[in-house]
C-alpha cells in the first residue's frame, strides 16, 4: 500500500496495530511467526506485514497463511522495516524479528505504555536457551534497557505511526539502526518505556558463532559505535547468519 494511501485512510478504517516482520531465509518458520503474532493479538485489531530481504522472495513464497501483507525490499533491517512501515496501515507499529516471540498481553501492554506518554517502547528480554551465560546476557540486556533507556531491536520496538514518521523512520544504515532510532527519540525529548513482560528470542546466532565470542563481539560493536565508528565498518564484523545457522533453534 503506498504511503499516501495509508496517510489518507480514515482513522476508523485503520487497524490498531501493524506488526512488521523483516525476514531473510526464514522459509521454515514464517508460518509459525505469523500464527504466534495472531494468537498473542487475539481479540485485537492486528495487521501483519512481512518484508522479505531476498529479491526472489523465498520466504514470501513459503508463507501459506492468508491475510498477510507481503513485500520485498532491499536486504537490511532498516530498509526492510521502513518499507514495512510504509506499507502498513496501523496506528501503532510493532517491529518483530522473526526469531522473537512476544509475551501474552503484548499488544494491550504496548498500547497502555504509549497512552501513558511513552514515545517508544520495548519489552524485557529472555533468550531461548538453557545456557547459564545466556541467562546472564538476557538479564544484563534488560537491566541496560531500564537503566539507560537503550533497548535493542530484538526486544520488539513499538511506537505510534506519527512518531515513527516524525523521526524519519530507522536510519538507513547497515547496523545499529535500532540504537540510532532510540537516540533520535531521546534527542527529541521522548520517553522510552521498557515493559516487564519478556520477549523470548532465539539463541541461534550465539550457538552458531559461539556464546562467548558472540557476546564479546556485540559489546565491542556497541562500544565502537558509541565512539563514532561508522556502521558500515562495523557491519563487516557482523555478517548475516547463514541458512544453516538460521535453522538452529530450541
Word description of this protein:
The longest helix is centred in the middle third of the chain and has 17 residues, at 132-148. The strands form 2 sheets. Strands 3-2-1-4-7 form a 5-stranded mixed beta sheet, sandwiched between helices. Strands 5-8-6 form a 3-stranded mixed beta sheet, sandwiched between helices. 44% of the residues lie in helices and 19% in strands. The termini are far apart. It has helices at 3-8, 30-40, 58-62, 77-87, 106-115, 132-148, 161-167, 177-187, 204-209, 211-226, 231-235, 243-246; strands spanning 17-23, 46-52, 69-72, 92-95, 100-101, 120-128, 158-160, 192-202. The chain has one domain (3-125, 151-202): Alpha-Beta Complex (Spore Coat Polysaccharide Biosynthesis Protein SpsA, Chain A). Helix 2 links the parallel strand 1 and strand 2. The protein has 250 residues and is an alpha/beta fold.
Amino acid at each position: 500500500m503506498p504511503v499516501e494511501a495509508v496517510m489518507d485512510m480514515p482513522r476508523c478504517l485503520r487497524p490498531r496495530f501493524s506488526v512488521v516482520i523483516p525476514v531473510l531465509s526464514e522459509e521454515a518458520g514464517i508460518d509459525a511467526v505469523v500464527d504466534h503474532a495472531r494468537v498473542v493479538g487475539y481479540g485485537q485489531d492486528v495487521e501483519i506485514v512481512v518484508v522479505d530481504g531476498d529479491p526472489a522472495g523465498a520466504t514470501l513464497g513459503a508463507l501459506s497463511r492468508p491475510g498477510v501483507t507481503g513485500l520485498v525490499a532491499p536486504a537490511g533491517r532498516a530498509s526492510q522495516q521502513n518499507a514495512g512501515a510504509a506499507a502498513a496501515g496501523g496506528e501503532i507499529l510493532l517491529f518483530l524479528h522473526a526469531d522473537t516471540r512476544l509475551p501474552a498481553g503484548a499488544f494491550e501492554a504496548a498500547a497502555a505504555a504509549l497512552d501513558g506518554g511513552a514515545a517508544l517502547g520495548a519489552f524485557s528480554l529472555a533468550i531461548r536457551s538453557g545456557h547459564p551465560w545466556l541467562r546472564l546476557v538476557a538479564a544484563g540486556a534488560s537491566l541496560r534497557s531500564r537503566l539507560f533507556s537503550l533497548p535493542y531491536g530484538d526486544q520488539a520496538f513499538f511506537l505510534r505511526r506519527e512518531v515513527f514518521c516524525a523521526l524519519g523512520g530507522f536510519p538507513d544504515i547497515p547496523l545499529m539502526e535500532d540504537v540510532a532510532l532510540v537516540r533520535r527519540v531521546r534527542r527529541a525529548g521522548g520517553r522510552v518505556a521498557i515493559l516487564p513482560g519478556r520477549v523470548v528470542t532465539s539463541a541461534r546466532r550465539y550457538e552458531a558463532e559461539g556464546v562467548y565470542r558472540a557476546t564479546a563481539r556485540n559489546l565491542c560493536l556497541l562500544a565502537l559505535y558509541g565512539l563514532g565508528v561508522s556502521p558500515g565498518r562495523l557491519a563487516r564484523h557482523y555478517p548475516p547468519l547463514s541458512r544453516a545457522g538460521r535453522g538452529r533453534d530450541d
